[in-house]
Automatic annotation (TrEMBL):
Family: Belongs to the LOR family.
Identification of the protein by name: Tubby C-terminal domain-containing protein
UniProt-listed InterPro entries: LOR, LOR_sf, Tubby-like_C
Pfam families found in the cross-reference section: LOR
Parts forming coiled coils: none
Length: 129
């Protein structure tokens, strides 16, 4: 769900009604980082109970080359372009690999991928990282 100020909220489970009203607080909130010169950070992920970032996402989602780092700067997940095993085969930007360490919840990692797609898609945003 899009909030004011380039901020998205991620909820666990399905929405309660057709109107999209969540029945519980968000699992986490993601804030899109503005384009700062020299910064590779594209978003910060906050849990509902903390004001400090739970995760930091760095890289370029439009190039499908980014990583999710935890608060101790450990790489927890990575998005990479899929490479062809045989020469001469090219995949589109919508074909990529998601590599997730066991310490990170796979559902959370996939939720972040879906959210990044909305955040940096030309139909949702004028800024593409």
């Amino acid at each position: 769900r899009l909030s004011l100020g380039e901020q998205w909220q991620v909820f666990e489970g399905e929405l309660a009604s057709a109107g999209g009203s969540p029945t519980r607080p968000p699992k986490f909130t993601v804030r899109k980082q503005g384009a700062l010169r020299g910064s590779r950070v594209i978003a910060h992920v906050f849990s509902r109970s903390s004001k400090s970032a739970l995760y930091e996402i760095q890289g370029s989602y439009s190039k499908r080359c980014c990583a999710v780092y935890d608060d101790k700067r450990r790489k927890m997940a990575e998005i990479k372009r899929k490479e062809a095993a045989a020469g001469g085969v090219a995949f589109g930007s919508d074909v990529f690999r998601l590599i997730v360490l066991p310490e990170m919840d796979m559902a959370d990692a996939m939720a972040l991928v879906l959210l990044l797609d909305q955040m940096f898609s030309s139909r949702w945003s004028s800024y593409n990282a």
